[in-house]
Design goal:
Largest sheet: 3 strands, antiparallel
Order of helices and strands: EEEHHH
Structural class: alpha+beta
Strand order of the largest sheet: 1-2-3
Number of strands: 3
Shape: globular
Strand content: 15-25%
Distance between the termini: 10 Å
Length: 86
């Protein structure tokens, strides 16, 4: 299992935590801060999904005029987690 605590940039969320099992499936993802309903929904939707599927679906998602979003920052965190060498 790999875990990460990631400080997102350019969004309302202050912290993203995530874990992936040895098969590359997301065990959990959680956000501190941000739009509570949206981030809780994202967390529930990605649980059990393959990390690569989540990254490809969420990467590049924008929030209004911002160049990023909480889903995009989750994808960035998951990319970092995927490339993390324990």
């Amino acid at each position: 299992m790999k875990e990460i605590e990631f400080k997102p940039k350019g969004v309302c969320s202050r912290l993203i935590k995530a874990a992936v099992d040895d098969d590359g499936r997301i065990i959990f993802a959680s956000f501190s801060g941000g739009c509570a309903g949206n981030t809780a929904g994202i967390s529930k939707l990605v649980a059990g999904m393959k990390i690569d599927d989540v990254i490809s679906r969420l990467k590049g998602t924008k929030c209004g005029f911002k160049g990023t979003s909480c889903p995009d920052q989750l994808a960035t965190a998951l990319e970092e987690l995927k490339n993390k060498n324990d």
